[in-house]
Amino acid sequence: MTGLVYKSTGSWYTVKTAENQVFECRIKGKFRMQGIKSTNPIAVGDVVDFELDENSDAITGSIHNIHDRKNYIVRKSVNLSKQTHIIASNIDVVFLLITINNPPTTTSFIDRFLVTAEAYGIEAVLVFNKIDTFDEAMRDEQLYLQYIYSAIGYKFLKVSAIEKKGLEELKGMMIGKVSMFSGHSGVGKSTLVNALEPNLNLKTKNISEQSKQGQHTTTFAEMYDLSFDAKIIDTPGIKGFGIVDMEPSEVSGYFPEFFKLQDECKFNNCLHKEEPNCAVKKALEENKIAWSRYNSYLKILEGDDEHYRQDVFNDDRIASDETRK
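^ thats the sequence. predicted structure below, dont judge the formating
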């Protein structure tokens, strides 16, 4: 039998067939994923082959094959530095939920996520959430980020699950697709899914006032069928986003505004650091590239994963003030 993985809890996988039959399955034997040291060999969104267990009291299945993935979103495992964690696979579009102050989303986090989406060929859309909570300063921050990323070519939406703003536009981008919502804990992923499909009634929690951090409510990635011909993968909140298996020479190719300029650099292997006649650094000096993006690029290039969970929005903003002239 063949089905689509809707939920992964680490040892059990909920698999749904084309006939809408749902089975709880386990892995048969060990999977050796090509070149991937992953904490989860099977991810939500995978198409798998399985067989039903005859000897079980309950009807369960054993997965014995994973179909080739067209793409996946992967990051460094939080606890195991040499392991990776595949968040989800076979995604048509990923929506990165961004909040300005409750909790703050850093430009460094946004850029790491976008680089990974670019590397695996997944369309990424920025969703500025909780716009109903904005004061003037927060609105200014949002417009600033909107300016940076729309100039690069990224699509964006402004939404409020509470006030039902922007939901129809969001739905329109999801129809006929497998979408994934991602972002920090507390940015409102589950609340937004509930606003799109109230019958799901996913659990939500308020932001911790003490730390301004979100509290984990989604503990495992899970896919849901929506009533308007769409599938959504709701994912656990991410504190940091460690880049996986990327050579220094590759990194600039996943910054679209850098990629457009690299043929104008004097050296074809230019890393846009100390090299003379670098088109990227020239554009940076002319404020045609955001300083925050260049700083993110340098951190990724230098393998600065030690601090990627502690980046503070204000540090990024101060470093980027030149772009506001």
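The two ends are 60 Å apart (CA to CA).
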